[in-house]
Amino acid sequence: MTDLMNLIQERRSIRKYEDRPLSDPILQQLLDAVRWSPSWTNCQCWEVIVVKDAAAKEKLQATLPPKGNPAINAMVQAPVVLVMCAKAKVSGYYKDVASTKFGDWMMYDLGLATQNLCLTAHSLGLGTVVVGLFDHDKAAQAMKVPDGYELVTMIPVGYPAKVGSAPPRKETAAFTHYEKW
């Protein structure tokens, strides 16, 4: 458990990468981490687009606002961008009806898959940053995501050129409640 806690505590959002490609076996390990992620009723609603082509990464970069997203350069600097998509209206649904107050659970399932991916990447000496501030529809169009699916996040992956220190964290007592709020 100590190794897992170390990975969790040491993982950082990486926005600067070495000019070094990822091998296919390493990439496969990252995709396997997604494959083994938990999901609502094991629906495995995720789809991953592996983007290595420079022109395609530039199209994705163009979907980020020109100011306000510190990951803008990472989109083209990283050797690979993993585009995380999900099938809509599957996770959290029973007989085509949302089963809970929160409706579609694809975001939750994709969050689990993303965390598996990022921790696995860190364990392999890689860096990642989860990119969420961008024009989702424009990015989906660039990646030719079909109807019925949503492009949720983009994750540049590569060997870190720079690793920052941990930001301050709340103490557990600040967010933990026992028996009631």
What does this entry look like structurally?
This protein has 181 residues and is an alpha+beta fold. It is built from six helices and six strands. It has helices spanning 2-10, 24-35, 54-61, 74-77, 106-123, 136-142; strands spanning 46-51, 80-87, 93-94, 97-98, 127-128, 149-158. The strands form two sheets. The chain has a four-stranded antiparallel beta sheet with strand order 1-2-6-5, with helices on both faces. β3 (93-94) and β4 form a beta hairpin. It is globular and about 50 Å long. The two termini are 29 Å apart. The model has no long low-confidence stretch (mean pLDDT 95).
Strand order of the largest sheet: 1-2-6-5
Largest sheet: 4 strands, antiparallel
Order of helices and strands: HHEHHEEEHEHE
Please provide the count of β strands.
Answer: 6
Q: What's the helical proportion of residues?
A: 25-40%
Class by SSE composition:
alpha+beta
Question: Count of helical segments?
Answer: 6
Name the overall outline.
globular
Tell me the fraction of residues in β-strands, as a range: 15-25%
